[in-house]
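Look over this entry.
=====
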Amino acid sequence: MIETDNILETINMIRLYNLDIRTVTLALSLRDCISKDCGEVCDSIYNKIKKYAKNLVSYANELADEYSIPIINKRIAVTPISIIGESCKNPDYVEIAKTLDAAAKEVGVNFIGGFSALVEKGCTKGDDLLIESIPQALAQTQRLCSSVNVASSKAGINMDTVLKMSKIIKQSAQLTKDQDCIGAAKLVVFCNVPGDNPFMAGAFCGYAEPECALNVGVSGPGVVRAAIADMDKNADMSDLANKIKQTAYKITSTGELIGRKLSKRLNIPFGVIDLSLAPTPAVGDSVAGIFQAMGLEHAGACGTTAALAMLNDAVKKGGIMASSHVGGLSGAFIPVSEDAGMIEAANKKYLNINKLEAMTSVCSVGLDMIAIPGDTKESTIAGLIADEMAIGMINKKTTAVRIIPAIGKKAGEMLTFGGLLGEAPIMSVNELSSDNFVNRGGRIPAPIHSLNN
């Protein structure tokens, strides 16, 4: 028997508290597109994406209408392109990037990820060529996203590539400075990157993934905030955690339903549900708002890291009961530009990069969508990346850095992207020199607990 209260609760989640399916992402292997001729590679990539993704957007829109649940983004993630391109006699990675972008436009998706390289232990010739091409590739495309994994708990931190990526990030920002440096906003550096993540900019189809699969990213920080706000103000931490778990279960169940329905219509396997609470700039759809509902004056107050740790853990415990296949990043995102509460906290100086770094030790990702002054030294950016990679390596978790050097702008000004990317207050960075440290190069060894097989 259907209960009226449950129906009304679901309606309120969607209409009042911004519950949505943040993304449905088609993961697609391009390993059979390898050829010595770059033109043949591009043709094979374009045709394969058209074949598998031709109905992704239309079927997703049909399901959104049928169930009255918004599906915000439709995306594609492909095999790391460094692997595909290096088979060519004369690889042209920018041309491959344009092909990916054209195919994404043809099938109507918002983004395509996988312009990526996995180089935690070192680079092949193809990896080097792809990394060098990233700034031009991002400047000459609209939908393309790029990621580079430079560290892992098993391999350590590839400091040569960390330093190289600091230069690539600045070049990507410089080449797109007329678009508020958006190139850097579509580029992320990872430690322990998962191969089934549906969220951009880090999504790609991992080497161990099947030919194709549908991965779903759910969201709903507004729903969690509202559930906590409705509780007795004197409820203890255990009750708070249980409420978050119950709410996460409901959110994940929605994603599971839509994911399985869509994969069946597309006639491809269902992959994973990513449990992440991904905020938006919309009022009320903020992870920072959850902290306030918990009892903190604002994000950045003492206790913020503890609140985030409990939130992240409770979301995973509740969500995993609603699906047999949980993966991706899963937890709570804290992107500064994409969360209205985080933007406010940064503007009011409640948050700085040091506090954000501490928070990343317990959340899903890392230093995400943070704008820094455009004149920040490359060695300082490399130091920021290395710090974040160390947190992931030591704690055996995924961490990432997506920072945007605001070319021509200083701390206190704003970058404005619009849409889900929002706007980013430019945050000051510690100006003490990291030069001699990061220029040593080589590889920071993996921790002792990596020897566990």
